[in-house]
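Risk register update: the risk that structure generation would not scale has been downgraded. Supporting records follow, first protein first.
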Amino acid sequence: MSWRRLDTLFLRLFVLLWVILVAAHLVAYAVVMGQVAPGRAADVARLPILTSLPPGPPFEQPRGAMPPPPPPQRSDMPPPPAPPPGEPPGQPRGDGPPSLPPAMLWLDYGLRALVIAFGAALGARWLAAPMRRLAGASTALEAGLARGEPLPVLDERRGSAEMRETARVFNRMAVRLREQFDARGLQLAATSHDLRTPLTRLRLRLEPLPEAQRAAAARDIDEIDALLDDTLAVLREQRAGSAPQPIDALALLQALADDFAEQGEPVTLDDTLPPLLRVSARPAALRRGLVNLVHNALRHGGSARLSAQAGVGGFVELLVDDDGPGIPPEQLERVFEPWVQLAPGPEDGPRLGHGLGLAIARELAERDGGRLVLANRPGGGLRARLVLPVG
């Protein structure tokens, strides 16, 4: 049987406790022996050298120190027996080792406590090291899955048997999660690609329609095409593992406002924006997130106003405002859950639906190190704040 099979957490803990107890005993024994009077060194030297508590209770008079005076002897009583050879007069007889004075006992206990505390601190750090490695690998796994970075790999030959097994399970789980993420992206990409064929047929079937109807239907098809392009671009960015890059926020918001205005949508851009605001993000992912926020504002508020401002702590805030009824404060976080959207009447509460726009927008923002926050505006309506790092 190899030693690595015996290297378990139980064995490590057992060895650690034994080493700490022995070290505490040896340190206390060495220090206390240095405090013993020379006349009693021979007696105290008989203290046990194995791990144990010092002899004697700390609140009682130790044996060998100032014995109580003998009772008065009557003249008709025989004299007390003489002590055995080699035992000093006045020394009480006993079978155990001599007791230490209370001061030395407390010194012994205090030294043992200090050594045990120091050993426990070092031991806790030693035993917790595998947990810290696992926590770091879990954080790296989250970043690897969200941003397309390389997955962390734990050393399966390091640590106790329990940690080695945990490392093997973690590595298999990481690989499986990456496969599931890739499969999900591939399925979405295939769906987006396959939709091109029916959209092309729809364009051909628009020819017999009157001009007004043909133009309106063509705009809808163009919008679907743009969404498919954005989806495929986001998937390409994730697959390639591209890093965030500086983006001119003002130019992006202006392009979005122009695109929606061409489609006849009431989307405006604040004309008081700062001259230069750059954010760090992936272009396709940022555009897709903003498009989802604008669609949400148009659907529930009837209009959308785009603006931006410098945030605090090295962040930039991209704002999408609407004039709708807002969201009840207790539901502001729930609307980010997939497949959940609010009912038309606020008093009806949430209901299941195709509420994916906000969930996708938040996920894309978090992949670039940002966050998405919703809040009701004091004057009415809803404000979506997309907070991103400065580029």
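Supporting record for the second protein:
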Amino acid sequence: MKYRIYDVRILTGDPSRVIDQGAIIFDQSGILGIGNPDITSDVDVEINGAGMTVLPGLIDAHVHLGMDCSPDPFQQIQLDREADTAFKAYRQGIQFLQSGITTIRNLGTKNHVDIAFRQSMEQGIATGPRVFAAGQPIVITGGHGYPMATEADGVEEIRKATRHQIKIGADVIKLMATGGVLTAGTDPGSPQLTLEELRCACEEACRASKTTAAHAIGLEGVKNAIKAGITTIEHGYILDDEAIEMMIERGTFLVPTLLAPLLILEQGRSVPRHMIEKLQKIEEEHRSSFRKALKAGVKIAVGTDAGTPFNMPGLIVNEMELMLKEGMSALDVIHSATRMGAECLHIGERTGSLDLGKWADIILVEGNPLNDWSSLKRIRQVFKGGQPLFP
């Protein structure tokens, strides 16, 4: 089926290229035409986009399929059967799509269910967003996230764990460079995997043309991950000038996940006390580090950390709104949730912007997000690979 959306505002994913009134033509092979409102072709379906905006499908670069958003998800993970996790992942995939998210990068799911979910969609069995899957994260014994992770100690164990993830089909290798908020008994500021262990995993991933992501909250762990050659720093609560300069020099992305700690703090009475105590010490630094990175020009992609407490799939617009409040322009936030997300996944040649020949991952929303941010929640239609999925 070939579609044409006309008389529509187009946000291309490039902040310098906004089309106030134009048209876009696409089918399952990709984007066939864009720009002039008069462009036409033999099409099967025409959609009048008056008063609406077309933009690339959103990319959530940090989610956890199968985590249930409960006050203590790691406790629940230890009780769930593999089938329980799979059912949750499938339901969450639908929720992501309904929110205009056509691509997710999944950074940790027990039993590698995210890889199986991706494969089921490739086989036409399931429906969901494009999934770039990490499978189980790699952590030190008892380290942050161990209930859903592969535990490994020392360079050779890390090497084997990384090669195993690649063998079973991981797109990205997730590494826990520091302790974390959700795992009892770990200090978010404390380094866990060593520089040598991180470097080994990054080298193995690079040999297999895979990307890497490091959960990194404390400064020493952040710097170890950057030095090791990591693709993306996740969270980055504590960044100094040296870390930021290193990220710029090496092209390291930041995925700040600003929303996740706020949701936990807002529900303080219902989450384990250790989470609140940890966040009260570092949450303000989190936002300060984001502002410093933004000002310096660090590459930033949008990730929600969906699956963590009260962090339901599809809250990407809430995350984007926080980035807006902390100093990003509306166009730059949309750029971070589209083109920059695609670049940090190394799929920028295929999606993330509305250019000829790219996948037709497209959303149509009511209104203009540039002056009414809530319009991003008023989704009229979602296309993934040129196929209409919602409503």
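The radius of gyration is 20 Å. On this basis the risk owner (M.S.) recommends closing the item.
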